[in-house]
Amino acid sequence: MTAAQADLQIDRPRVADGAALWRIARDSKVLDLNSSYSYLLWCRDFAATSAVARDERGEPVGFVTGYVRPDRPDTLLVWQVAVDEAYRGRRLAAALLDGLAARTVAERGLTTLETTISPDNTASQRLFTSFAERHGARLEREVLFDTGLFPDGPHEPEVLHRIGPLPAGAR
């Protein structure tokens, strides 16, 4: 953790954090915003595979949500990563991702991390590329959902980023 992160705590989200996670996602203006209800459910049902950063008052200022893929129990799929605008530039997203990977690998023996990223989301591409580099893991990319699969009009393809195997340092 850097000095700029020293005043922050990273732990599991609680149901009471759902509203703040929804606001952070909404204010990012980049993420697909889910209903506020889904963030409450996420904090209840997927807290073990998600992480939240808290400021000195205990308020959420960033999060990573994820889940273990049912058909690949060695794989954590990262769903969303967001940091409150006031806390950007501190490498907080990287610290959240590193912390979540270390925790889920230790608790569940995971070996692979996956996420999907739209081609125009360069910040997320940099985040996951640097994660793979920090951990000496291979990064593979492939189109997961092409534009024609989305029923709600033109949509960029979602590119799957698969990182693994995760090394012992992340485990």
UniProtKB/TrEMBL annotation:
GO biological process, one term: ectoine biosynthetic process
PROSITE patterns in alphabetical order: GNAT (PS51186)
SUPFAM superfamilies attached to this UniProt entry: Acyl-CoA N-acyltransferases (Nat)
Record-linked InterPro entries: Acyl_CoA_acyltransferase (IPR016181), Ectoine_EctA (IPR012772), GNAT_dom (IPR000182)
Domain N-acetyltransferase, first and last residues per copy: 8-163
Alphabetical list of NCBIfam families matching this protein: ectoine_EctA
Name this polypeptide is given: L-2,4-diaminobutyric acid acetyltransferase
The organism of origin for this protein: Streptomyces rochei
Gene: ectA
